[in-house]
Each structure stands twice: as C-alpha cells, then as structure tokens.
Amino acid sequence: MDEKQLLNLMNTLSVEEKIGQLVQLSGDFFNEGAMAVGPVQKLGINQGMVQLTGSVLNVLGADKVIKIQSDYLEKSRHKIPLLFMADIIYGYKTVFPIPLALGSSWNPDMVNLCNQTTAKEACAAGAHVTFAPMVDVVRDARWGRCMESTGEDTYLNSVFAKAMVEGFQGDFTPGESLASCVKHFAAYGAPEGGRDYNTVDMSERRLREEYLPPYKAAVDAGCELVMTSFNTVDEIPATANQWLMDEVLRKEWGFDGILITDYAAIAELIAHGVAESDKDAARLAMEAGVDIDMKTSCYANQLKPLLEEGEISLKKLDEAVLRVLKLKNKLGLFEDPFRGASVAREKKLSNCAESKSLSRQAATQSLVLLQNLNDTLPLTKEWKIALIGPYANNQDLNGLWAVYGDKSQVVTLKTAFEEILNPDHFQFTQGCELLDSYEGLGDFGFFTKEETLLNTDEDKKRELNKAIELAKWADVVIFAMGEHTLQSGEAGSRTDLNLPAIQTAFMEQVLPWVKKSILLLFNGRPLVLTDIKDKVDAILECWFPGTEGGHAIVDLLMGYANPSGRLTMSFPCAVGQVPIYYNGFNTGRPQKTSTHSVRFTSRYLDCPNEPLYPFGYGLSYHTAEYSNLKISNSVLRSGEQVEVEIEVHNSSEISGDEVVQFYIRDKVGSVVRPVKELRGFQKIHLKAGEKRKVIFTITEDLLRFHTRDMKFEAEEGDFEIYIGKNSEDYLVTNFLFEKK
Ligand code: NOJ
Fold this sequence. Notes:
The chain is an alpha/beta fold. Strands 9-6-5-4-3-2-1-10 form an 8-stranded parallel β-sheet. 1-deoxynojirimycin binds next to loops.
C-alpha cells in the first residue's frame, strides 16, 4: 500500500478500532499462552477489545502464530494483520552468547551475522518484531541486566547498536528479517545502587554524552521501534517524559517509528506517583508520544473517554495509529500476514548446522582469558583432565533472555570433552551445588529452576570425595563454576558479586589436591574475583555462551582456537568500587598525580581505585608487541585529518587475533572531560611472527562533545592519544587541535 492508501484505511477505522492498534496483549488472550516474561496481572480488557488488538507479545512458533493470525483476520472487519513482537534477544532456538559476551568479541560484523541468522529462524516461527537490541550503557555490575548489554562504553555500544539493528532488519526481506526495537530508552542501565527499576538521575550533559548515543546510533541505523524504559529521567518516568520522547527522540533525532512502552509501564506511572489513575497514566503516555501500550488496559479502556473529554486529540491518536499501520505495511503484512511463518521452515532452520557453527564461532570469540599463569593453557591431550563443578555437565548455558532457546541442544562441557578424549584422559563430576539455597531467586516465567541434585549430606560428601579422588588422579583440574542463571537478567540485582559461597568453600577443599587448576566462569555480569584469583592458575570468563558453549570452550582450552575476547565491562576488585568504568573524570585530586598528600587524594583506604581487570582487557595464547606509535601531523585543523599509526608484532609462534584499541583524551575543556574515551578499534589477525601497521584517522568529528553551553562541538587545544591492548596498557602520543 502507498501512504495514501494507508491513510484511507486509517480513516475508515472507528475510534475503537484505532485504539486497538495501540494495544498489545500476550498470547493468553488468544488462548495460545505467551512466554511469561513479566509480572502476571489481570488486565480487565473486554473481549471486544481483544479482537481489535493490534499486536501480540511473546507468542512464537509457526503453528501458533498462523492459527492466531488466521482466526483474528477471519473475524476482523478491515483485515489488518496482527504484529507479532517478541523478546528474541540473542537467538531464537539456536542461542548465541549473551550480549555482554558478544560485546567481548569486539566483532560487530560477526554479531550482525548472528542477528541475521536469528532473524531468519524467528521469522520462520512467525516473529515480526524483536525487542532488541538492548543498548543501555552499563557500569554497575550489581545490576542483573548487564548481561543484556554490550557493556560500559558509549562508543562501543553505539557500534554494536548499529550492527545489531542492521543484522535484524537487513533490507526487510519478508521471511528473513525482523523489525528491531531498541531499548530501554533511556538510561535504564544506570539505576541507583544497581537495583533494577530504581531511580536514574544524572545531568543532561552526562545523559547526552554517555547514555543517549547508543540509542541514537540504533535510530540512525533505521531501527523501526523504540521502547521506553521503566526508570525516571530527571524525576519523570521515561514513559511519561515528553522532553525525552518528543523533544529529543522525535524532534531532535527525527525518529518517526513506533514508540512502545516496556511491560506495564503505563500503569506503573501510578506507582511512580505521577498519575492518579489508569486514565491519568494513559493521558500522560499519550502526551509523551507513546504509541503502543504493552500489557496494560490503560490505552484499551481509557483512550476513548480521554478523547471524548478532549484530554487528548484525535490528531495525536491518528498519528500513533498511522505509525503502526506503516510498520505493518513495511513488513509486507497486508500482502502476506504470515510473512514466511512455516512449520516446516521453522523446523529446518532451528538449530541447523549453519546456525550452530556460527554460534560456536561467536562463543569462541566471546570468551575472555583473564589469567594464564605459567602458560597453563592450552592443555595437551596427554594430560589427565578432571572437570569438576556445577557447570561441568549442565545445559543451562543460555542465560536468562534466551526465551525461546532450545536447551536440549546445548552442548555441555562434558559432552564436548568426551567427543575428543577417552576416559583415560578425561573424567568429570558435579562436585557441588550452584547455590546453597534457591529460595529468593523467584520465578521467571519460562525459565524453570532445575531440581537440586545433591540433596542430602551423604550426596554432598560423596561428591566431595569423588572430586578429591579425581583431583589426585588428574594433571589438571578444571572447575566449572558461576552464577545461577536466575542471578542475572531482569530483576537479578545482587550486592554480593563473589562466586557463590558454596562453590568457593568446595574449591578450598579440593584445591590442596590439585596440581594445576583452571577456573571457568559462567555468569551474566562482572564478578569480584579478588580472592579466588590467586588460588588458581588460569581463569577463563565464559559468560553464558549459548548452544555451542561446550564446544567453544573446549576448543579454547585445548588450543584449537586462540582466545581473542576482551572485556567490555571493568571487573571490580571489590563491590564497593561500583559503578566503576574506565572513562571517568580525573577529579581535582587524582590519586596518582595530585600534589596533595596521599591521604587527601581521591581514593579508597582499603582498595585500589583501579579495577581488577580493566575495560578492554583479555589475554591470548600468542604474544603481541605494540611499538612505533607515530602521528602524521602534530597539529589537526578543522576540515583536515591526521593519521596515527602503530606497529603490532605477533612475536610468538601462534597465530591469533588482536583487538587494537584507540583512545583519545581531551586535556582541557570548557567542561571536565573523561580521562580517556574509546574512539576506534580494529580486530586484526596476525600470523605467527607477523608485523602489521594499524592506522586510525582523526578528524574534528571524533573530538566533539557537549560544551559548557551545550553545543556539540570540538574545542581547540591539546589532545592525547593512547593506542594499545586495553584501557590501561598502551603507547601515548599527542596533537594540537586548531580551528582555522
Ligand atoms: C520487560 C523487559 O524490561 C523488556 O526488556 C522486555 O522486552 C519486555 N519485558 C517484554 O518482554
């Protein structure tokens, strides 16, 4: 349909039919059950409105979708198809590593490919829209949703935002692409105290400099939808925040797609204390420019009276409806309401060999080697290997947001080892439980807690003894430990970021018998590893690696692949350091360079300022040397560019990938500038012995920021450049920026 036809269609709709387009309900309203991903509540929506609903939340599976769509269209007066929207975050049936892990790959092209693959699989299952990417900047490891973001850096998240949106949407080929919904707008990743849904409060400058750019990058990449966040921004909940939605998103950024709320966020305006009633809440959301109400009855029941009372205008309603119709049209739903959904295709694509192979590659690139004392890794086939721990033979490697992931396909570590080693060289046991108690984790709809396996004291003792026996037998013990899946993800905030106590206590008992030890970590956020680090030889951060996790990890452990992952979130020394991130401000009393006596510098009395593992950090089996940092001109003028070049030498006999990181520091500004900011990176492959020059180009654009009078521009003066392996290990040069 062209725009005129769409307008004509809209003008034939009754007010109720228009409102229906702005209502999103879950599958239980259509007798098809939805994946529960939020609090269950009674909505009080009448059946008439259900039949007018414009979109469905979290129902997938070609059979279900085809049935709901057919039944709906049969009864519908205007035959406007339903939109099926779902949380397809990092995979459909084939699960890729969690986004925090994907970020660690520093490989946006690969992540784009992962999303293309996901889009194909999910399209076959009937999906039209995915609630991804989540691009919130995350700096507080207490927040459980760190796992859903690519990390703490504005620039890197922006690069991934673009790659992810383009991967999902492609050129909108029916059956192959999904419309993408960036979330959670805005600044959801900065809740006070790291507690989910909590207040977010920051200056407008910080919001614009550090938190908004990744959403903007998604919008600039053509993202079709934006989701409002649960939190407040400047003490106004995002869902009712007119400045944010209308001024910034729509007017400044020119976003003309759909604005949808997060789950039940309109009704939550009442609990926030900015609305008195559902009606008031609906009015506020409408005024802010929210198009679709996810999972409340506010729009369904209140928009009509609001319209009749003149509290909202028909124009505003029409604008919202037209945006929904436009997306349906863009997706081709008027021509084909099923858009490639097919039971046979879904079966063929889900977990097909190609998807699995990409998942294995993605996991391989996402793992981060944190420690490797005395070159403990890689292992050799001659060694006797004991694999011990609650993740030794555990298929819960998908992480919390793999709503549709097929757990039965997950390759465990045990399975992967047994494919290449026989019992003379490989033995395993669970050793201990993940947690002392599973109480307090709550329920998370689709994710079911496994029954505890080691129930009695006798079971526990037997496992401990077996672990000790294996440790005595083995040349190397691999401990597979970590968080329970429910300890991260939505509503998964924690104040204790150590490994669960039951696991460290178990390790203490086994370690005295161990010759060499490797710690594998499965978790959805940075952990505090300060105590455990000195007790083991090697540490590999595995995150939640997805379907092919077992294979990828074994590939790295055995040296079939060389680790290349680099952290995108700082790992704190102690939880008291959080929020901790590499690009803070110097302060007036910087610990290392202040002229004041030590006592009066900005520091902790009981802990270093630096993280245990910094942003950008990760080891490989090869060794790389960085040298000869050169700049083409020591002065950069507006409209010109300078090039900065560094030589990277793989001085080892192993080929591998390096992530060459490029940071800039603006020495003096009209407002305080960060101590460094990532402004570029290149992931390069180096053969054994190879030397390569890596070049970054600097233009005025890279130097812009929100100045004292809130102009987004570069200021003249001195800049430093840091290029190296991570945010703390680099070579330095500088230049002067002058405006002509
Ligand atoms: C709540 C979450 O915050 C959001 O990320 C998700 O997309 C919605 N629920 C829908 O399930």
